[in-house]
Amino acid sequence: MEKSIANHLRRCVRAAASRSRVPYSGRPRAALALMSDGRWMCGVRIENASYPLVIPSLSAVLASANSIGRQDITAIVFSDRIKLEEKTMIQQSFTGSMEQLADDILGHSGSITAPSDELIIGRHFPDKLDTAAGIRLARQATRHAYTPESDFPVGALVVTHDQMCYQGVNVEHGDWTQMLCAERAAIAAAVSAGEANIQYIYLSCPNAPATATPCGACRQVLFEIAPEAILWMDRGEQTAESFRISGLLPMAFSL
Fold it and tell me: How far apart are CA 105 and CA 100, in angstroms?
């Protein structure tokens, strides 16, 4: 990778690190994914009072990329040195094998192009997004889900107070402990973009049983990020139900 390209990407990812949500460690961290067309996107570290539910910056950017159907990553740049667990995760993800190009960069050296514009993953609705439209968009997101083992695609849409929307899907791979549910993938995309005021979350499980709702891990994360948001639950042919996030997890853990 040319030095000028590397330095430009370093500046971008270090700027993104400031959007990290790190109230417990105080250690911001970001990861940048460079696509084959030169566009790029970032993910940031998102901490939770339940420490095992922290979303690492690498998980955030990989989930965000896959949630919009982008798997053509040619390089990943970190805001500081690469960690061993990050190398392992990349080997198990859809990015394929990458060589270490620098202390903070992994990539396919022969196919890296000069960076262009940031890949904007949010979508703005000038008018209020109604429930039917939110559910429709969450359902559409499920086409990007990758579920070879469960055959249980899930799509999520996070909507902010100013009508910015961020989608997420579930993506399965070898190490189940590194997976993010669709809700957390959408939250990761929104927080990585600097959003804080989440108003609605639309969750679509087209193959869901009648009782499907967010898992406990997602409830804890949602409670800390957006406790007053309203979640709409879509289960295919059934009538959608709404819940306030603060009511989904009574006596949620906090520090």
Answer: 6
Residue appearing with tokens 């690190």? 17
Burial of 232 (0-12, 13-18, 19+ CB in 10 A): buried
Report the catalytic residues: 183
Q: Give the model's pLDDT for residue 93.
A: 80
Q: Which amino acid is at 195?
A: E
What is the strand order of the sheet 164-169 is part of?
123-124, 164-169, 155-160, 198-204, 230-234, 241-244
Q: Strand, helix or coil at 110?
A: helix
Q: Is a pLDDT exceeding 80 seen at residue 175?
A: no
Specify whether the CB–CB gap between 29 and 19 falls below 8 A: no
- Digit-coded pLDDT (tens) for 15-67: 999 999 999 999 999 999 999 999 999 999 999 999 999 999 999 999 999 99
pLDDT, tens digit (0-9, with 9 covering 90-100), for 85-102: 999 888 878 777 899 999
β-pairing, 230-234 with 198-204? parallel
Sorted by sequence, the CB contacts under 8 Å of residue 55 that are 6+ apart come out as 45, 46, 48, 180, 184, 187, 188, 221
CB 63 within 8 A of CB 43: yes
- φ, ψ at 238 (rounded to 5°): -80, 160
